[in-house]
């Protein structure tokens, strides 16, 4: 019997070794000119017609962004905490992240669920009855949940999401309200970001670059909620204290705090000045190349799902019985997104059939659920069964530290050179129709301070990105041998040529200019590379 204690911690090579499960439509050969487009699930693809494109414009004269010689240490948590949160509310947030709860409920009235959680946590919990009634929820609405040893905020999300409810914290009280009501309540917080904006070595220019960070926040976190596009949220820099002043909803504030933590994690791994050869003789990526933003439990679940073999034989078996078997066999928790399943005509009693022997749990779930336009993902540290449509709307932010792929050095200074090519590859390869540049929702921003790609995308597209970066790193590791076998100029010589070309570009100036952002203190106009300009005008 497999237990959760057998989950193995993530190794450095896991992210690039996730299994690929592709399907080919009937009558379609592998040579058919199609592009694979994700539907939002884990490990699934569908074939769609390739997007017609004109002649490819070569990406040349890439911006040479000069990087700092020193790397600032991330702010300690107590100094990085947002300012403006009352102490009594901070205590509630600390408990939301630290306390663990369990709840087994079958058609239990909502008021009893609240009382149960109140008894377990010793937190004051109130119901915002008017906003709940607008969602058709009352104190007697029956709640069904099976939660074991879950973090309090994750448990609340698992219970409330299915009813379009959420929670806010005010006056030292945990208030359960509707997502609509919570979205109309804005609060102001000040975020110390000195370690994230002070990104140049001391010199004649002001070394603080707020614009890069602000653009990442506005483009990545609830993009339609900001005043620059007609929303209510605002974000402004205060250079005197190296802080960001943000007026937003509690949900967006939580995302901002999490994203700043992610950027600090990624910046911690930024490399010191090195020679032109960036450890190409070491194919195993260092810890700094791991993805920032994925919790340890989530990584363990991904590894477990792709490495645990399962044998199943279901013949017209109700979905509820299938989930019961998987819970018993794996000792994992499974949640159902019942609303999205109902939209696909699936209920707990829907009969399903499949017979597989010794296949990874991830493959079993994919092959079983895809028949009904369903998929699975990991949310709140549990496996959630949902629809492909809903999974495609579920975006998350992760940061990919890529100095080994984009940075060159002349032995004195380090320059970020290949970030635009890398972003172009992501746009053209990882679900091309899903990016904001062509009308989708996904975004990618480059954060020069830590040579990191900040990506807001579905979990499936993140999986594709992780695999792609793994392949590129394997290609990088092979390069010296390829050069030797083919008689090409040495890698070091090629890098010198490429760096010279990058530095010759008319916009290869400071980090602030080359990253395409204005200098607030000096009114510097944006200067962007050809690809960045193309992406913004698509």
SSE blueprint:
Layout: E1 34-37, E2 46-49, E3 65-67, H1 77-80, H2 87-98, E4 100-109, H3 110-121, E5 125-127, H4 129-134, E6 142-151, H5 152-160, E7 165-170, E8 173-178, H6 179-183, E9 186-192, H7 194-197, H8 210-220, E10 234-238, E11 243-249, H9 250-267, E12 291-292, H10 296-307, E13 309-318, H11 319-330, E14 334-336, H12 338-343, E15 351-360, H13 361-369, E16 374-379, E17 382-387, H14 388-392, E18 395-401, H15 403-406, E19 407-409, E20 414-416, H16 419-429, E21 443-447, E22 452-458, H17 459-486, H18 491-504, H19 511-514, H20 530-537
Parallel strand pairs: 5-8, 14-17
Antiparallel strand pairs: 1-2, 3-20, 4-6, 7-8, 9-11, 10-11, 12-18, 13-15, 16-17, 18-22, 19-20, 21-22
Q: Which class of secondary structure composition applies to the elements?
A: alpha+beta
Q: Whole-Å distance between the termini?
A: 53 Å
Q: What is the radius of gyration computed over CA atoms, rounded to a whole number of angstroms?
A: 25 Å
Number of domains: 3
Major sheet description: 4 strands, antiparallel
Average pLDDT number:
78
What spatial order of strands do you see in the largest sheet? Answer: 12-18-22-21
Count helical runs.
20
How much strand? 15-25%
Report on this structure.
- With 538 residues, the chain is of the alpha+beta class.
- It has 3 domains: 262 residues, no CATH class; 85 residues, Phage tail protein beta-alpha-beta fold (3-Layer(bab) Sandwich); 85 residues, Phage tail protein beta-alpha-beta fold (3-Layer(bab) Sandwich), CATH 3.55.50.30.
- Helices cover 36% and strands 24% of the residues.
- It is built from 20 helices and 22 strands.
- The chain has a 4-stranded antiparallel β-sheet with strand order 12-18-22-21. Strands 3-20-19 form a 3-stranded antiparallel β-sheet. It has a 3-stranded mixed β-sheet with strand order 5-8-7.
- Strand 7 and strand 8 form a beta hairpin.
- The longest helix has 28 residues.
